[in-house]
Amino acid sequence: MKRPGDLAARLGVAALGIPVVFGALWAGGRPLAVLVAFLAVLGCLEFYEMARLRGERPFTVLGAAAAAVLVLLAGIDPDFGRFAVRALWIVLGTGGLALAGSLRWRWPGGSPMGTLGSTVGGLVYVGLPMSFVPLLRALGDGPVGVVATGPGSEFFLPMGFVLLPLLTTWAGDTSAYFVGHAFGRTKLAPAISPGKTVEGSLGGVLGAVGAAALIAWLWLADLPVRAVPVGAAAVVGLALAVATQLGDLVESALKREAGVKDSGRLLPGHGGILDRLDALLWAFPLAGLLLSVIWERS
What we know:
By secondary structure, this protein is mainly α. Helices cover about 75% and strands about 5% of the residues.
C-alpha cells in the first residue's frame, strides 16, 4: 500500500515532469532530442547498474554515450532510412569497442561475452527505442498541415504521432490498474509480477484500443498526408497494448534478476527512469513500424 508521502512525491514529480515533457514535444527538433537523449542516458545508467548487480562489467560511459548519440542524430536528421543505417553502424561500433576493451583491460579475469552483451544490451534496450521519439515527432512537421477538426488540433496535431503511442500506453496502463484492482482474480505472471492479473491485462487492452482510436479520430484520421484511419489506429492500439504489457513484464524480470525493487531512486515515489519508460521502450519503435506499414498500404 502506498504511503501518503509516496503519493505526494508521485504527484510532485508528475506536476513537474508532465509540463516539461509536453513542452519539449510541442517544441520538437533539437530541444526534444536533447531532453530525450538525457533520459536515455539516465535509463542506460540504470540498466548498467542492474547488470553490475548481476556481476557483469559493462562499459557504462561507452554505452550511455552511444545512446545519446543515437537520439541526437534522430533529432538532427529525422529521416527513418538514413537513421537506420547510422543506428546500425553505432550499434556495431559500440559492440566492437566493448569487445576490444574487454580483451584489452579485463582479460583474463573479465568476461568478454558478458561485457559485450550488457554494454550493447543497454544501448539496444534503451537508446534505440528512445530514438523513435524525435523521429515520430518530426512527422508532425512534415507536409501534413493542420486540418483536423478535433479540440486543440493546432496544439496537439504536430505531436500527434508521438501522442498515439504515449497516450495509448498511459490509457492501457491506467485501465489495467483499475480493472485489475476491481475484478482481478487470475494471476498473469506470478513469478515475474505477482500483482498483475489476466482481467487487468484485458482491461488494459480495451483501454489502449479505445485511446488509440480516439486519438486518431480527433487529430490523425483526416490528414491529407500520413493519415491514420480510426480502424487502423485501433489495430495499432491492440498491438501496443500487448507489446507494452510484455515490456512491463520484461523490466520486472530484469529487476528481479538484479534483486532490486526499482530500477533506480531518481524519481521520488516512482522509482527510476526505467520504471516509467519500461512500456514506452516497446511502444515507440512498434508505433513507428506499424505507422509506416499503414502509410505504405494507403
